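Ticket #4471: complex job returned nothing on first submit. Input attached below:
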Amino acid sequence: MSVPVLEIRGVSKSFPGVKALDDVSFAIARGEVVGLIGENGAGKSTLLKILNGVYQPDSGEILVDGRSVSVASPRQAFDSGIAMVFQEQSILPTLTVAENIFLGREEEFIRFGLISRSRMHAAAAEELRKVHLDIDPGMRCADLAFAARQMVEIAKALSLNSRIKGHVTILLDEPTSVLEQKEVDLLFRIIRDLRDRASFVFISHRLEEVLDISDRVYVMRDGKVVKELSARSASVKDLHQLMVGRQLHHEYYREARQVPPSPAVVLAAEGLSRHGAFHDVSFDLHEGEVLGIAGVVGSGREDLARCLAGHRRPDSGTLHIAGAAVRFAAPHEAAGAGVGLVPAERKVEGLVAPFSVAENMTLAALPRFVSHGAIRFAAELGVARDWIERLKIKTPSPDTMVGSLSGGNQQKVVLAKWRIAGVRVLILDHPTRGIDVGAKEDVYDLIRDMTAEGLAVILLGDTLEEVIGLSSRILVMRDGAITARLDAPPGGKPRQVDILRHMV
Amino acid sequence: MRAMRQRLDTWLPLIVLGVLVLAVGLYDRTFFSLGNVLEVTADTMTLFLMASGVTLVIMMGGIDLSVQAVASMTSCILAVYLPELGFFAIPFAVLGGIVAGFVGGYVSTRLRIPSFIATLAVSGAVLSAGYWFSETRSINIPGELSQKYLSWAVGNFLGVPNEIWVGAFFLVLLSLVLGLTPFGRVVRGIGAQERAVIASGIDVDRVKIAAYTLSGTMAGIAGVVMAARLGSGSPTLANEFLLPAIASIVVGGTAITGGVGSVWRTFVGALIVQVVRIGMTFMGVSVFAQQIVFGVILVAAVAVTMDRNKVLVIK
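Support reply: We reran it on our side without changes. The output follows.
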């Protein structure tokens, strides 16, 4: 390979409690399309964000055309010829298509200090033609269909190619997840057309697509590149195997403590649907079981979890808790019925950071700690001390600000909060995200403790391995529907490839 | 360093107050006399009462711009109905504040309208209501009625003006509510991280509406005390109070972004504002120019109390 257009050498990046990237090296040749795959949390997005200047690497370097460069901001990345199409769209809905495409690069259209609309629209129309998108550049993006907005996003990234002299690299983070097959075909045709002028990094959960469009594929796992292979010689099955990697070890997930679920149904969903998120979802949740839900981002499992906890409303379908029909309009109604959610965004939804450990723990059960209108501080502290001990939370005291604890200990505080509230159903959305290995094992133990006491747990695991290891049953979701239901008894766990097959 | 900064944040308003008092006192020694100190404090109380309820709203990260109009309106209600209803005109007037606060809270939470718009709209409606009650006039409260029904607000007890007792009562009451009750804790939590409070299964809307209602109530009480002091009710009685009220809260160290604050701080803040006002009068600054100074103080206080490095975008 001649000098790569874009290369990274030995890049590492840590966040508190996790090593997101560990000594990653990666190169893209001129005109090449490189696929990047890995499970959620494998480090793909972190890698792209480093290339795009959103994050700074702790160590290692980025080279463009063999020269070491610093990419301190998306703007600098752009100037170095690196453009990104975001998974979550970066289109501003209140601006027009043309304004979005040239956002931050209006200089070239300025005449007498004002932006020349006609010139900008003409240039935008040119860019839109390249992606075969037949829309008026003066339209507001809010009025576009979702897929069309995605195409505008792509046009914006591609526009770099006609604006910058020299070769560019375009990072595509799951660009196809909302596109129809026809649009995917179009996107691929455009990518192929542009290969003499641009290189691409392509991330997708749809492995067939990755193999279809890429020349080479990098497989990431646990923040490392575990394999680099030619797309021509690889099969989807190979990729599955590589993404999954190591064998399960039973002890890690406390399989011995997995109890057979009781026949009593705590929560029953029937035909639950929410437009644009999931449809016709039915399942029973039993006392003392861990029901895992597997699915990629966009499978609808996050929305489902939020509907169950009252954060969102389903459009149709019924939900029964302990036999009684319920309809939650807000989280406090769900909590009142005994359903709690441990959210993925711990710092935003899980905890009130400037509150003390004790204050956070009792937040979901405050009325229980009140007499004559005042909070009984002694009782509160007593309960907090008790749970700090039970969950082995490392904190100087119950009065310590929760924001100063480590991620793992913070998560234990969130779990304690719902235990103190006495919920019967606990929904765990990525309960081990961003916490270190030791704390993860503690959380697994706590989940087993809960189910032993009859709590029912719905688990949206951080990794597939975690879902398999902890769950007694697994629902697999794809594109908003349940595609498989698997039993996962101790000693008889399904293999990851069996689940991945239904996921992607 | 950080701990020091925090300690400084806690004590800074008191230090500022001390320095200002000293400065004004050196300019005019009579300022330090017991009689004068009591008088200045008594004069501050209406401002404090009005700002005390808004403190809770600001601690939640919201704002209540209606308090000035509410206080004016309740002064009118009191003045109009005192001859007819006697003592019951007082709760009736305060009820006006309760309703105004509730409506502001309801509109901002249930209809999901930003609080500054919701309370600004309420402010407009309440202003009109004040004109309607008073038929656009200033209404005198006859001396004998004031004697009979309002002496609790304007008389003396143990040599201390009653305004101070009333202010102290609500200072203690609201501090207890904020410090000891679940309501107070949730108010603090909403300001610090509302989404986590919602996700913990707390009916945040109810708490918010209660806080706005409390703010309207305190404005109503402030209006009653104001009318009692001045012996009249008028639809423009509390004009020029909004800016000093918000300045009191912020100068006291309650963060405009929510989460941190107390009624004590607002009390100190109100005293600071009052001493500055007196100082300006001593120095011959025109009453009309004083609002400029309050504006500057407000901006300076926000700059000091808000950790602007942590906030990415200021709206």
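Residues 253 and 469 of chain A are 5 Å apart (CA to CA). Closing as resolved unless it happens again.
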